[in-house]
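Lab meeting prep.
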Amino acid sequence: MKKKQNINTKSLLILIVIILINFVSFHYFFRIDLTEDRRYSLSDATKNILRDLDETITITAYFTGEMPPQFTKIKNDFRDLLSEYTSVSRGNVLYEFVNPNEDQQLENQALQNGIRPAIINAREKDQVTQKKVYMGALLKLGEEKTTIPLISNESSMEFDLSTSIKKLAIKDKPKIGYIQGQGEPSINALQQVKEQLDILYDVIPVNISDSGVYLDQYAALALVSPKDSFPPKALNHLNKYLAQGGNMFIALNTVDGDMSNATGKKLSTGLESWLADKGITVEESFVVDASCGNVSVRQQQMGFMMTTAMPFPYIPAIVNFEDHPITKGLESVMLPFASPVSYNGDASIQFTPLARTSDKSGVQEPPVYFDINKNWTENDFTRPKMEVAGIFSGNIVGNAPSKIIVIGDGNFPINGEGQRAQQVQPDNVSLMVNSIEWLTDKTGLIDLRTKEVTSRPLEQVSDTKKAFMKWFNFLIPIILIIIYGIIRYQRRMVIRTKRMEEGYV
């Protein structure tokens, strides 16, 4: 009887513990993240955004019900992320999941809200078929709403969600002044950059040559690829802005390459002299780097015109980045017709390099002729690890601390306009957007932009090592089983022999 009471008491205690665990887990969401890159941990920026919410944001996640495993994982990860957002925001983030494929009305609702289906290949009954799936979300705050059209990347999930919430919650967007008037491309020629900046900023074109221009209203100024001379009035406006603690992003060409006639020359706008007065030098020379991009060349081969990709050292592929929030997570930035950047002023200004060329790099003085068939040798790469981007901070003008980020190339973020517009690679976009966010935004969203899952593809492993790893993984379990069998067999033989001995008990 006593034994039965003990069993009942233990069962009751176990039941109480289970109820308490469920109660705590319902009200306090947590998980242990053992991944190297902390991919399942919310950043401080996200936590700050969620804790500052004073109104409820509702999220409708449009996801197809039955999907292949890799897409189901995205759905589950997004659900877990939303649960954590709800917990951290203390209930100010509410969400629901809707399957648009179940009902035509729900599908129309998803389409009207900007959720676009993706066409994927799915295997059903030993056949590969195409399937329309939805993986997007609608966020609403009062009458305001924004959409994440497609959630397909685990590494950018938190960034997309947090920036969308920030976009809805922010009351007054900071203004970014995009300088015009000296032959700079319009802001529409930087489509990818503008798309990213529009989330948190109002990007406003401003002509600094106007006498009545008011620059104090801008959190930062952006100046990209000027081609014409700066009048003294414009440079005076910039000096006044910096003297009041303003921040600037400058992407400057001091040389210009023309692929139509394969020549390169100097480009002078007066801005390089304005920078030089502050100790900041952007050399009037072309960087050449063995680590470079390609250009397409049409050549006649065996009677046919063939397009061949040829390495072009005048387009350095920059992979050496400083450990800094602006460059965190960047892998490769293309800088066509770049120039070195350096500082030779006094200690009142601090120079922080952001990006460098490779070990095999050098410079060529203009004018130059771009010889695609040139045989590049070690003698052409005599200046390794040159800085091509950097931050200049301190009392640049007057006594108020300010910052200037200088990139020795003005072409890297430009898409162009009309039929000549081209996509630039994401890291080029991130370099400019990260720079402006670092100059202006105090929320820390810059850390989310470059938060990504570390990839270690097998393509980086030699064929010999691949073969070794494959056979090692295949044979080791078999060998271990055989060894275990032999040991067990020998042990049983020893026991059997002992049993046959006289006097065995």
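Slide two material, second protein:
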Amino acid sequence: MVLISAQPYDYELPPPGCLALIIIDMQRDFMEPGGFGDALGNNVALLQAIVPTLKQLLDAFRVNGLPVFHTIECHRPDLSDCPPSKLNRGGEGLKIGDRGPMGRILVVGEPGNAIIPELAPLPGETVIEKPGKGAFCRTNLEALLQEKGITHLLITGVTTEVCVQTTMREANDRGFECLMVEDATESYFPEFKQATLEMVRAQGGILGWTAPAENILSKLSKPTSVESRT
């Protein structure tokens, strides 16, 4: 049994191949100066701070041959998959589909909708295009996880209190054992991140666990052979 030191108690790693890394919405428009997030007045440097840690986790999963799933929040160019309740948010500011500093906001294929180069998916890594906040909403993520026999998820990305937390709640309801990586997720609002971490691990881990990346990396230091996962 391999245990990761976590809150509210140790997180038990499953057999090799049953653990996946979920990287939520590390998109240029949210992360980079001149993007949508920056245009809304947010400090994108807060989000950029997690990139080196998340890259370490991603590299460790790749070296060990473990599954990685990336998500992108996006919509079709005609916005037919964007409900009015989402499309009309924002008052007089930029809205989904409007032309922003990096192309049309949250429209698939636009420059700002791409994952940042540091974390760009490799061939064979799944990219989930999601029209909602959660990665399970109107996507095939659940089916893909079940097909691969994945039972445990490490949840990372941005922003902690919106798409990351929503995905973790959805995953918890579907029976996945989830750990949110504390220093591989971030918010434009530090107090929102802290509140989310506390909510996740409250009441004996009502939604799952949290732990810093170093506690995980120390358990993934030895590559897992393909033979041992088949």
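Talking points for slide two:
Confidence is low (pLDDT under 50) at residues 223-230.
The longest strand covers residues 177-186.
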